């Protein structure tokens, strides 16, 4: 039978330190530290009742959960839990605003074209036989590309995410249409796209700003991030979206972001096959770049990233450029 090293035993690595001070993993160290604290309380107060001991344990657990944790870049476990599991409307440590000017946001500009086309035709317009947006809207959306920050990296318009001859070849526009359906702004029936009556009223009263938060919520928690790619790995990065956003806006480095995600969520590495051509870290890097950086943050105009991965045959450090729209939208109230 394999012997499990006790927290107060010498570490098997040979350092001479106690296991709890050396190679114990982070979570186990937390538990060990808490047990030490409780044992100390019991030693100093041997007459504590079970009920009193439970109160002490609860207080120690609460204090540990609210203490900044280095593996979480200084977030407490309580704060991290909120970002991972709380509904969009109950997120803490961040204020999410609707910017006054959405001209730099591809998603909202495309949505404006879709809504305007419908509003000019009594609230609906005809879809193509495949159920896509009509050529007129696709052409108008393609013509917007020069106005976006990402345009500086577009060399071959035929493979652009932000332009295309039809919706099938125009990922950012298709993404916008899908989000608008998920958010309950538009729906397709009898070969036509309709804007819901409530959405029509909102648009006439408040303009495109009325849909920024609903669309963002749909993008971060309801839309399937793997929809536009062929990745076989079933990793739902949506769970970590706010943590990743907080980190990338603080240092702009894709490589550093990947290391921080792997440190905070080490189990992610196990989702990748060990016999893959690329290492788990490289796979995670590509997945985050594709699904989070390119097809979320860039589609929204929050950041841009130079698509070049190699220079003179060597991998280059990927640095993002944070756009004004990101800081106008997200105000983090915790220190980076």
Helix/sheet category: mainly alpha
Overall geometric form: globular
Strand order of the largest sheet: 2-4-3
**How many beta strands in the DSSP annotation?**
9
Major beta sheet, specifics?
A: 3 strands, antiparallel
- Helix percentage range: 40-55%
Low-pLDDT sequence parts: none
Figure out the total of helices.
12
Distance between the termini: 45 Å
Mean pLDDT: 86
Specify the oligomeric state. Answer: single chain
Strand percentage lies at 5-15%
Helix and strand pattern: HHHEHEHHEEHHHHHEEEEHE
Supply Rg: 25 Å
Brief rundown of the structure:
With 336 residues, the protein is mainly alpha-helical.
Task: Name the descriptors.
mainly alpha, 9 strands, 12 helices, 336 residues, 3-stranded antiparallel β-sheet, 43% helix, single chain
Commentary on this structure:
The chain has 336 residues and is mainly alpha-helical. Helices cover 43% and strands 8% of the residues. It is built from 12 helices and 9 strands. The strands form 4 sheets. Strands 2-4-3 form a 3-stranded antiparallel β-sheet. Strands 1-9 form a two-stranded antiparallel sheet. A hairpin with a 2-residue loop joins strand 3 and strand 4. Helix 1 runs antiparallel to helix 2 and helix 10 packs across helix 11. The chain is globular. The two termini are 45 Å apart. The model has no long low-confidence stretch (mean pLDDT 86).
Topology:
Blueprint lengths: L25 H19 L5 H16 L11 H9 L8 E3 L9 H14 L4 E3 L8 H8 L28 H12 L3 E4 L2 E4 L1 H10 L5 H11 L18 H11 L2 H11 L15 H18 L5 E3 L4 E2 L2 E2 L4 E3 L1 H6 E3 L4
Antiparallel strand pairs: 1-9, 2-4, 3-4, 5-8, 6-7
């Amino acid at each position: 039978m394999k012997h499990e090293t006790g927290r107060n035993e010498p570490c098997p690595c040979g350092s001479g330190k106690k296991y709890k001070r050396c190679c114990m993993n982070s979570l186990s160290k937390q538990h060990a530290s808490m047990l030490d604290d409780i044992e100390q309380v019991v030693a100093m107060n041997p007459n504590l009742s079970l009920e009193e001991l439970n109160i002490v344990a609860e207080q120690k657990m609460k204090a540990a959960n609210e203490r900044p944790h280095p593996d979480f870049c200084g977030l407490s476990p309580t704060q991290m839990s909120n970002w991972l599991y709380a509904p969009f409307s109950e997120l803490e440590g961040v204020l999410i605003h609707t910017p006054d000017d959405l001209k730099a946001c591809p998603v909202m500009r495309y949505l404006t074209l879709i809504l305007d086309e419908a509003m000019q035709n009594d609230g609906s317009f005809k879809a193509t036989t495949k159920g896509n947006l009509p050529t007129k809207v696709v052409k108008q959306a393609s013509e917007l590309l020069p106005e976006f920050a990402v345009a500086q990296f577009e060399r071959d318009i035929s493979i652009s995410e932000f332009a295309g001859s039809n919706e099938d070849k125009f990922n950012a526009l298709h993404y916008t249409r899908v989000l608008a359906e998920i958010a309950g702004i538009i729906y397709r029936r009898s070969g036509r796209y309709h804007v819901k009556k409530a959405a029509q009223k909102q648009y006439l009263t408040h303009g495109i700003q009325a849909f920024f938060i609903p669309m963002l919520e749909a993008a971060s928690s309801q839309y399937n991030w793997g929809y536009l790619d062929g990745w076989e790995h079933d990793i739902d990065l949506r769970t970590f979206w706010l943590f990743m956003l907080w980190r990338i806006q603080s240092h702009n480095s894709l490589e550093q972001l990947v290391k921080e995600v792997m440190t905070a969520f080490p189990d992610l590495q196990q989702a990748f096959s060990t016999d893959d051509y690329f290492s788990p870290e490289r796979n995670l890097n590509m997945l985050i770049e594709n699904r989070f950086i390119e097809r979320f943050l860039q589609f929204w105009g929050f950041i841009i990233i130079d698509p070049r991965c190699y220079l003179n045959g060597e991998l280059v450090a990927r640095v993002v450029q944070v756009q004004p729209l990101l800081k106008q939208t997200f105000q983090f109230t915790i220190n980076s």
